[in-house]
Amino acid sequence: MIPLDAAASLAARDVFNQFSSYSLSAITLFVLMGYYASMAGLGEVLYRAFYALVGPLRGGLGVATILACSGFASVSGSSAATAAAMGRMALPEMRRYGYDPAFSGATVAAGGALGILIPPSTVFLVYAFLTTQPVGHLFLAGILPGIVLTLLLAATAYGVALWRPNSAPPAESKPWEERFRALLGAWQVPLLFVLVVGGLFWGWFSPTQAGAIGAAGSLAFAAINRRFTWASFVAATAESLRTSIMILTLIAGATLFGRFLVLTRIPFHLADWVETLPLGPESILFAIVFIFFLGGFFMDSMALVTLLVPVFFPVVQRLGFDPIWFGVLVVLTAEMGVITPPVGVNVYVVKAMLPDVSLEAIFRWVMLFLIPLFALVGLLFLFPQLALWLPGTLGR
After folding, report:
1. Claim: this prediction has a pTM higher than 0.90
2. N or C: which end of the chain has fewer CB within 10 A?
3. Mind listing the pLDDT tens digit for each residue in 263-276?
4. What does the DSSP 8-state code read for residue 344?
């Protein structure tokens, strides 16, 4: 037994050490980057580009929304922010062309979930901090699964349009010259992504410096796009501060939880017990992933990761699985949690923009978008190199 005064002293010291940690500043700066990117109108530029490209297809606005969410996720890192930014543009357009409002809401909510998987992801940053894994490798590991998931979600939206044509009619066609011009107008997003993620991996700067450069770049684009005002700057900074405080508080709590968990030796007993089960390592890992999935029904994705990773990560290490690959699985299952009832944050974000649509109707439609998420989990189990190829190829 640890004396109460010793435990309190340990808790105070750990909380202070966490909040004074230089490495944690990367999280706050990447959050700031996402809010400044939204202020700069990068989401609107992306949506116009994909709207012009695929809008004339049946279900094209839904597909364009998914693609734009994927692009905005590469400079945001937050699923709720991605859903909010895309919803403000996509939902009115889809309503104008006669889309089923509940399907429109589900499309935005599911597309917004890409903000967790596609780097720079705040959940990847938290996982890296909790497990001491390299941030650059985790970001690289999320790129190919993020692209595959984007295509699967877009295919789901297109499939719904074929299944129920009245739910997702085509938009008006635009000349090819206008389509190419719109695509070229979205140059700021890939430039910012390559600068931040590429520079981080190639060693040009640390994770904290990468976040700072991303935030500064987003501010510069806001000025270039004539979207910078003092009021918007203060509002974006304040929102990023609130989000950062929430994340840091969760990390501090998870650190304390993990510290006392180690003292109880529960993770070691759990690992010993798991190794005695008459199951193969893959079956045990599948059970762990399923626990993360169930937890997503009742907890926010960030809280889920900070609570369960300290418990199961030692077990995964004992089983011999790659920690980078496991990180992608964790982030992917956390991604499911942002669209599953009753805590699906993205659905509530979208519902606030659709006051005339019932929450139950959006949740019913969003269940279809769980199919590609489950499919990607299966692909990662069958082909781990989907997550590990880029980190391995570029020098892991």
Report:
1. no
2. N
3. 677 666 666 676 67
4. -
